[in-house]
Amino acid sequence: MNLNEKIFIFINQQLANPLLDFLVLWIFFPLFSLLVLVPFLMLFSKRKKILGLFSLFCGFFLYWFGHSILKPIFRISRPFEFIENVRIIGPWHTSSFSFPSTTTMLAFGLALPIFFKDKKWGKFLLLLAFLVGFTVIYTGFHTPLDVLAGIFFSLLFVWPLQKIL
Hints:
Blueprint: H1 3-14, H2 18-32, H3 34-42, H4 49-74, H5 102-117, H6 119-138, H7 144-164
Helix pairs in contact: 2-6, 3-4, 4-5, 4-7, 5-6, 5-7
């Protein structure tokens, strides 16, 4: 078993408990809506309108790019297809492939532009994005490598573009 699978099993199975299940399903999921709500609300501010548009563009473009381009290229199965006793919880939509985590790409695509330009809100949104990454592992739909790849591809896209904003 490789390190990716060992970390996945630790998060998905060994950390599993009813309190964390409750937090993930009933607290974290609603909090994740702030990743979209904050950039959307920025559209109503003269000073933050461009940043809000840029954040929304990056998040949804990265989700599309990961789902439509990257997953079909890499074609890596979901963890429950090659790891035993995977716990599946939550209302996640599953496509055939897991690498990279497009949910993580969406979260970081929304959070990173704001983090680079507005540290106050950006730190909060980045924390939520990391919670998204943890959650998709905990719920059994992605491995740590999927999440790290999602973060990497998001940084690779957002960092150079934010320099010109």
